[in-house]
UniProtKB/TrEMBL annotation:
<dbReference type="InterPro" id="IPR052022">
    <property type="entry name" value="26kDa_periplasmic_antigen"/>
</dbReference>
<keyword id="KW-0732">Signal</keyword>
<dbReference type="Pfam" id="PF04402">
    <property type="entry name" value="SIMPL"/>
</dbReference>
<feature type="signal peptide">
    <location>
        <begin position="1"/>
        <end position="34"/>
    </location>
</feature>
<dbReference type="InterPro" id="IPR007497">
    <property type="entry name" value="SIMPL/DUF541"/>
</dbReference>
<protein>
    <recommendedName>
        <fullName>Oxidative stress defense protein</fullName>
    </recommendedName>
</protein>
Length: 243
């Protein structure tokens, strides 16, 4: 798997109780860490971004039908779900990668003018979430869903099996970014670092790209879909004491 690391711009601020009037360094209008310290210190923010090529996908599909009776509606959506799951198993999709939501049934009414409402039928729906471990199977699985009566494709999120590795790589890059900035700033102001005082870290969630249809006239169906990249961003805020 190929990774690319990006380091976007950040906000950095050097503060100190004895230096506030003379030393105030910043890029941007707000401090990344809003806190007051009674000793000379330096605050840095380390940021990194790793892009990972997707090799799997998570799809959410739904069957939604209206029938005369609640029983007919239930049987119709259940039949579509059972047939689609059977197709998934034939394609080698594990049962653990298939999540089927509970049945929902709602009565449907017609409201004529100045007349009591009239029951016209029952609307039933079931949703399935499927993790497709092999991206080259995605198009065939979507086709089989439509063939078996699944009539709504709600979401297609592309993922990577290497996300954990990418997150760790991005985290270490963010840590190194914070260290380099702190050393550079301290040296620039003729000061020395006196160790780390505080570390603040919030877990970031990978941004999952959604598969988009680019063109319906291309001959190769798979090439008509654009596969984006999974973006993994990490951020660490560090407070250093200054000697």
């Amino acid at each position: 798997m190929t990774y690319s690391v990006k380091k976007p711009l950040f906000n950095t601020q050097v503060l100190g109780s004895a230096l506030c009037a003379a030393l105030l360094f910043g890029i941007g209008s707000q401090s990344a860490i809003a806190a007051n310290y009674d000793f000379p210190h330096l605050e840095t923010v380390g940021i990194s971004q790793v892009q990972v090529a997707p090799d799997m996908a998570e799809i959410s599909v739904q069957v939604s039908l209206t029938k005369t009776t609640a029983k007919e509606a239930k049987l119709a959506v259940d039949e579509a779900v059972v047939k689609f799951i059977a197709r998934l198993k034939e394609a080698g999709v594990s049962t653990d990668d298939i999540q089927s939501a509970n049945l929902q049934i709602q009565p449907q009414y017609h409201y004529p003018s100045k007349q009591p409402r009239e029951l016209t039928g029952y609307h039933a729906s079931r949703q399935l979430t499927v993790t497709v471990m092999k991206l080259n199977q995605l198009n065939d699985i979507l086709d089989s869903a439509l063939e078996e009566g699944i009539n709504r494709v709600q979401n297609i999120a592309l993922k990577s099996s290497d996300e954990t590795k990418a997150i760790e790589q991005a985290r270490q890059a963010a840590i190194n970014d914070a260290k380099q900035k702190a050393q550079s700033l301290a040296q620039g102001f003729d000061r020395k670092l006196d160790g780390v005082w505080e570390i603040r870290y919030l877990t970031q969630h990978p941004v999952q790209p959604v598969m988009m249809r680019m063109s319906a006239v291309q001959s190769d169906t798979m090439e008509s879909y654009q596969y984006g990249e999974v973006n993994v961003e990490e951020r660490v805020e560090v407070v250093y004491r200054l000697k």
